[in-house]
Amino acid sequence: MNQPAYSDSPHEASMDTAPSEGGGMPISSALRILMGVGFLAVGLVQGVGAFTGEVEGGIVFIIDGLGFFLLAGTGVTMLMNRFYSLYLLLIWAVLGIVGSFLGEGDLALPALFARIMVGLVALAAIGQRQTRSPS
Fold first, then answer.
1. Burial of 54 (0-12, 13-18, 19+ CB in 10 A)
2. Is residue 95 a contact partner of residue 67, using CB atoms and an 8 Å limit?
3. Which run of H or of E encompasses 110?
4. Closest CA to 36 of 89, 115, 111
5. How do residues 44-62 score in pLDDT, each as one tens digit?
6. Helix or strand or coil: residue 31?
7. What is the pLDDT of residues 9-25, one digit of tens each?
């Protein structure tokens, strides 16, 4: 007996309607916009605060300041629905982790864990995107 070449499975149908090459992030548009605005706001406020703070400068503050401006850039790319915002988010997480270990004072464990988790989520989303077949 001949079987039809197509499948009625909703999972396979959703894979066919995935964004084409250069598409956006694999989340809903409302969540993407909310996260983009949040990352933009937090990145700008924290970046300006890191560079204009009353604490003495140093490599850690430069890394933190650049990292937070990178987070603001991530927010902008999320608002433009670009997939490479996940790579920017991953770089922000790595910079934060490096800055945490280079810090001369107390290690802020909650901030370190948060950046590790953000990095892992970005890696998982990138990996999810890479495993999709381009057919």
1. exposed
2. yes
3. helix 109-131
4. 89
5. 988 888 777 766 667 777 8
6. helix
7. 444 444 433 444 456 66
Q: Where do we find the tokens 């495993």?
A: 131
List of the chain residues with pLDDT < 50: 4, 6-21, 133
Quote the pLDDT of residue 86: 85
Q: How far apart are CA 104 and CA 106, in angstroms?
A: 7
Contact assessment for residue 118 and residue 100, using Cβ atoms and an 8 Å cutoff:
no
- Alpha helix (H) ranges present in 21-108? 29-52, 59-79, 85-102
Contact 107, 100 (CB under 8 A): yes
For position 34, what pLDDT does the model report?
Answer: 92
Q: Which residues contact 89 (CB under 8 A, 6 or more apart)?
A: 39, 71, 74, 118, 119, 122
Residue 119's identity, in one-letter code, is G
CA dihedral sign of residues 52, 55, 56, 60: negative
